[in-house]
Fold this sequence. Notes:
This protein is an alpha+beta fold. It has helices at about 10-20, 25-35, 90-100, 145-150, 155-170, 185-195, 205-225, 265-280, 295-300, 315-345, and strands at about 40-45, 55-60, 65-70, 110-115, 125-135, 135-140, 175, 225-235, 235-245, 250-255, 285, 305-310. The chain has 2 domains: about 10-130 and about 305-345, Gcn5-related N-acetyltransferase (GNAT) (Aminopeptidase, 3-Layer(aba) Sandwich), CATH 3.40.630; about 135-285, Aminopeptidase (3-Layer(aba) Sandwich).
Amino acid sequence: MPLTAGPSPAAWNRLAHDAGNLFATHTWASCWWDFYGDGAQADVLCDDLADPTVVLPLVVTGRVLRQARFIGHGPADQLGPVCAPEHRPRAQALLREALEGGRVRADVVLLQDMPLDEPWWQPLGGRQVSSEVSPVVDLVEHDDWESFLASRSRNLRAQMRRKTAKLEDAHDVTYRLATAETIEADLATLFDLHARRWEGESPLLDERQGGFTAAFARAALAQGWLRLWFLEIAGRPVATALVFEFAGASYCYQLGRDPDHDHESVGFVLMVRIIRAALESGLREFRFLRGDEGYKGRFATREPMIESIAHARTARGRVAVRAALVRRHHREVAAEERAAVSEPAAAR
Length: 348
């Protein structure tokens, strides 16, 4: 990846660890650039090359409308400054200096997928153009699995025990993780089970996104972050989860399963196993990442929000931001109308 004033990969990854964000790593940014950086201009802002405390990895794209975003946007589920929480004010100052000094030239600065409770950008101004829930299971307060189960509702607790026991009693069930020796075959199985689950309709099945995901999985394996899980029945994979562990958190990035075994809840059973493994490994939390899918809400203990902020720098940028806000309003109205139609049907 072409870097401008960027620190070493090791220093960058250390700051990402301080930020508690897998998607802020140099490893993620470098893989992303290989697949999404063609024709873009990278500008990695850094406060001190010798001893960095803040990195802002930006990419500028577009000719008619120049947009500055974080490197890694799109496939990432959370972005923001690469720094410890106490250094976020420095990130805002660094970005302001780059914009006002002309180093970063853009019509719009689009700060995508940032935690709502980290408003480091507010002194710059901007408008929220999107928001999305990113459910989390908090694990740190539980000493063991039984303590965690006791904290869940009676219904969920019963399902977690019953469905797991039923599947394991009926079949020769094994759980395993991908290794350096199995990674290529296991990635192929991940994509196959994901395609079967989504009947061939998923962004992951796009050649570029699939290639990026596989490349990052390989890089994460080399770093010790990869947890590519499989639930197997009689040695045949029937459910999978692409999970990463970084800075005390588990990231559930992609899932797949064989629909022929949906009646046995193999996806649910594997999720129970993965959450238990995260707890027993001493991790702080299990992140389901963006999206309000029902299964996430069943397990989550809290639902923080992720937001995207647009900061217009020119008249052209202000027009673009207003158009984005209008589109958002139309989406919200359409969603409310769909909900109003479905509610009477659900009541019948």
